[in-house]
Amino acid sequence: MNMEEKLLKLHSENPDYVVILQACCAAHRRGQQEAVEVAERYGYAEASWLGFRHTDVKLDTDDFKLATGLPKRLNILTNMGFLEISFKSNSSTNYKVVAVDEVEKILQERERLQHEYQPTERLEIPDDLFNTIAGYDDIKALIKRALKVERFHILLCGSPASAKTLFLLELARLPGAFYCLGSATSKAGLCQVLFEQQPKILLADEIDKFQTKDIAILLSLAETGIVREVKFGKQREIQLKTSIFAAANKIHGMPKELLSRFRALFLPEYSEEEFVEAATKVIIDKEKADPELALYIAQRTWQVSKDVREAIRISKICETKREVDLDIQLLKRYTERSRLI
Ligand SMILES: Nc1ncnc2c1ncn2[C@@H]1O[C@H](COP(=O)(O)OP(=O)(O)OP(=O)(O)O)[C@@H](O)[C@H]1O
Ligand SMILES: [Mg+2]
C-alpha cells in the first residue's frame, strides 16, 4: 500500500487519527523551522533536530476525547507507519512524520481524500437470490439490474405481508449490505453506521417511520451520496456510492422530495392465485408442512383473510385438514366480531 492508499484507509476507518496526523505535521514543521533558525543564529553548518514531542502537538479541537491520551495515539500512528521515533530517553520520546512532504501534500487535498475512498469490488449476485419469494418476477429482475449499477434507489410500498421485508432480507445477504429498520434505527444512528460501514447497499425497512434527522441523511445520500456530520464543532464528510432499497406501508406523509429520489413500486394486493402460491410456498419452506396440507391451508385462509401471516399462523397449530377447518370456522366467527370493535 502506498502512502496515499494508507491515508485513504486511515481516513475512512479512523478520521480522528487524520486530524492528529495533521497536527503532527504542523509540529514537525515548527520544530524543523526552529532548528534552522538556531543554526543560522549560531552559524552552525547544519540544522539538527531531535523531533517533536507529544506536548508540541497542538490539536485545534474541543473534542476532549481526541485531545487526551495523545502519547498513546502517537504510538499507534507510529505502529501504523505514519510516525517514526527519532529519539527516546527516560523522560521523553521524540517523533518525526514519515515522508512529511508527501503526507502534507495528500492531506492538503483533503477534499479529494474525503470524496474518493470507495471499495470497488464487483458485486456477485448469488443465483438463489429471491428464491424464498413467490411471484414478483418482474420486480426481482428489476432489482437485479439495479444492483449492477451504482446508486439506483428502489422503494417497495404495499400492504402488510406483501413480502417487502422479505425482499430486503434477501438483499441483506449481499456483501456490503446493511439493513436498518425505521422504527428502531440503531442507537449509534444512521450517520455513524454510514461512516463506519460505508455500505454499498442500504436496506431501509419501514422508511416511513424513520426519524426526521435520518430522513435528512437519506435525502442527501440518495441524491449526491454525500454524508455529512457536524460533531463538537468539527465537520466530517464522505461520499458514498450507496444504492438504497427501501420499504414502506404508506407513502402518505413521506416527504415528496424523498419519494422523487426513488423508483417507487406499489405492490398491489395479492390475487387469490398469487396469495395461494405465496402462502403455500412459505408454509412449505419455513414451517416444513406437507405440500398438500400447505396448499389446503393457503386456499382455506383466503376465504377469511388476505394476510399471508394468517396462513402461517394456521399452519403452526394445525396438522390435519380437519384442524384447519375448525380453525377457519373459529376465525370466521371471531374475526368479524373483532372488526366491529
Ligand atoms: N410473495 C411471497 N413469497 C414468500 N413469502 C411471502 C410472500 N408474501 C408474503 N410472504 C410471507 O409473509 C410474511 C410477511 O412478509 P414480509 O415480512 O416480507 O411482509 P411486509 O410486506 O414486510 O409486511 P409489513 O408491511 O407488515 O412489514 C413472511 O413470513 C413472508 O415469508
Ligand atoms: Mg415489513
Q: Could you walk me through the main structural features you see in this protein, from its secondary elements to its overall organization?
A:
This protein is α/β, with parallel strands linked by helices. The protein has 3 domains: 3-110; 137-267, Rossmann fold (3-Layer(aba) Sandwich); 272-340, no CATH class. The chain has 15 helices and 9 strands. The protein has helices spanning 3-13, 15-42, 64-67, 70-79, 100-108, 110-116, 137-147, 164-171, 190-197, 212-223, 256-259, 272-285, 291-302, 308-317, 321-340, and strands spanning 83-88, 93-97, 154-158, 177-181, 201-205, 226-231, 234-239, 243-248, 263-267. A 5-stranded parallel sheet has the order 4-5-8-3-9, with helices on one face. It has a two-stranded antiparallel ribbon with strand order 1-2. Strand 1 (83-88) and strand 2 form a beta hairpin. The protein is elongated and about 105 Å long. The model has no long low-confidence stretch (mean pLDDT 88).
Summarize the structure.
It is built from 15 helices and nine strands.
Percentage beta strand: 5-15%
The ligands found in this model are: adenosine-5'-triphosphate, magnesium ion
Q: What's the name of the CATH homologous superfamily of the largest domain?
A: P-loop containing nucleotide triphosphate hydrolases
The CATH architecture assignment of the largest domain turns out to be: 3-Layer(aba) Sandwich
How many H/I helices?
15
- Strand line-up across the major sheet: 4-5-8-3-9
CATH class of the largest domain: Alpha Beta
Helices and strands: which structural class? alpha/beta
**Mind summarizing the main beta sheet?**
5 strands, parallel
Number of domains: 3
Number of strands: 9
CATH topology of the largest domain: Rossmann fold
Distance between the termini: 67 Å
Low-pLDDT segments, ≥5 res: none
The radius of gyration computed from the alpha-carbon positions, rounded to a whole number of angstroms, is 29 Å
Q: Fraction of residues in helices?
A: 40-55%
The gross shape turns out to be elongated
Encode the helix/strand succession as letters: HHHHEEHHHEHEHEHEEEHEHHHH
| Average predicted confidence as pLDDT | 88
